[in-house]
Amino acid sequence: MKKIINILLIFILSFNIKLFAESGFESILNVPLGVSLGIFNGELESIGSSPKINTKAGFDSGIQAQAGYIISFGKFGLSILADIGYSYDSFKYSLYHSVSAFGGSEEYNIENSLYLHSLQIGIIPKLNFGAFSLGIGGGVKIPISGISEIKTIKTINIFGNSIKSEDNIKKNYTKSDYLSYVIGYFKFTFDYSFFFTSKLAFNVGAYFLYDIGLSYKAADLNETYRVDSFDIGFQLGLRFAPRL
Q1: How many other CB atoms sit within 10 Å of the CB of residue 75?
Q2: Among 57, 76, 98, 100, which residue carries the largest CB count within 10 Å?
C-alpha cells in the first residue's frame, strides 16, 4: 500500500511539474475591424403613428490588450485574460413616418447616428485546442468622446406636388443626454495562432459582439429607448504564450 501511495505521489508531482512548465503568462495585442448593425430598443410615442424603424450599418474598430494566465493540459489549455483597450463604435438606425396635413401629407425620413470613442474593460476566458482558441467574455465600455448626428429629410406632398427639405444636426457627445454612462458588451471570438517561435505567434481570427447601448433622455417621460449594436468582424494580433 505504501509503495502504491509513493508511486501515486511521484506521478502527481511529475504531472504538476510538467503542467506548470507548459503553463504560463499569456498576452495578446489585437486590432479588430468590423461592421456594426444598429438595433433599436424602446418606444417613440411622441412621433404619433407607429414609425417604421430600420437597421443601419456602421463601422467598428479599436485596439485591445489581453493579458493573463494559461493553464496547459497537454494540447488543451484554459486561458483567463483581462480585456482592456480602446474601442470605436457606431450605433445607427433610421425611421420613417408620415402624417396627414392640409389635404396632403408630410413624410419624414430620419437617420440617427452615434459615434463613440470608449475605454474598454472586461474579461475573456478562452479554451485553447492546440493553435486554435475559442473565447467568451464581456465587460463595459466607458465613452470618452464622440459625435451624434441626426439627418432629417422632410417631404411635403400637396396638390400633386412634392417639396423636399433637408436638415442635419451634429453635436458632441455629452453625458447629460443619456440616462446611462457605460455600454455593456458580450463577445465571442475564435482565433488561430501561427507560431514562429516557441512562445510568439501571429493571430488571425474573427469575433461576434453585442453592445448594450446608452439609454437616451427623452423629452417625453413615457419614452424609454436605446440603440444596441451587433458587430461582426475579423481581428489580427500578436500573441505571447507557451505553445501547446
Answers
A1: 11
A2: 98
Q: Strands, E, within the chain: which ranges?
A: 24-42, 52-55, 57-73, 76-101, 104-129, 132-158, 161-172, 183-195, 200-212, 225-240
Q: What is the pTM of this model?
A: 0.83
Is the separation of the CB atoms in 221 and 206 below 8 Å?
no
Cell numbers of 177, please?
A: 443626454
Q: Is the separation of the CB atoms in 53 and 40 below 8 Å?
A: yes
Confidence of residue 244 (pLDDT cuts 50, 70, 90): confident
pLDDT of 38 > 90? The answer is yes
Mean residue pLDDT across the chain: 84
d(CA 182, CA 54): 24
**Span between the terminal Cα atoms of the chain, in Å:** 36
Cell triple for 240: 505571447
Instruction: Enumerate the β-bridge partners of residue 145.
Output: 117
CB 178, CB 215: distance < 8 Å: yes
Distances (CA, A) of 178 to 45, 59, 209: 18, 22, 22
